[in-house]
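Fold this: peptide-methionine (R)-S-oxide reductase
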Amino acid sequence: MGGVSDHQSPQSPDQPATATDHHDDGPSPQVGQVTDDQWRERLTPEEFHVLRQAGTERPYTGEYWDTHTEGVYSCRACGTELFRSQQKFDSHCGWPSFFAPLAEDRVEYIRDMSMGMERIEVRCRSCGSHMGHVFQGEGYDTPTDLRYCINSISLTLQPADPAAGA
């Protein structure tokens, strides 16, 4: 198996792309130019904890868990567009939930063996920031049978209608 989970390739419409093992050895190679000190200068302490240290915000506390504004959700750290409101759904879990990313090449999947279980972590492919986790087979009535459980603090919503606000 060698560092690959049993998830299928990105061509499968109902499963996320192949995951790699999580090694806790720092950010993805794409962000080698940005140091932890530089990230600390750019992000609030809470943002740094979630985005750069793979923390999790408390459920029902983030600004987007129950937002229904149309628009695009971008990585709060680097601005890469990751999710669209059309793929957001109410999962009642306390975090924003999406059934698919904007495009598979915008996210990366990392096998996360913390917390005594196997999960699939979702990161921004552009900057390596932690977004949340993706779960499969929970029975939600969505086209993919996936739930991307994403921290609000990892995202910035750009409303389709700027007057609508977040």
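Helices lie at 36-42, 45-53. Strands lie at 20-21, 71-75, 81-84, 88-89, 97-98, 107-112, 119-124, 130-136, 146-150, 155-159.
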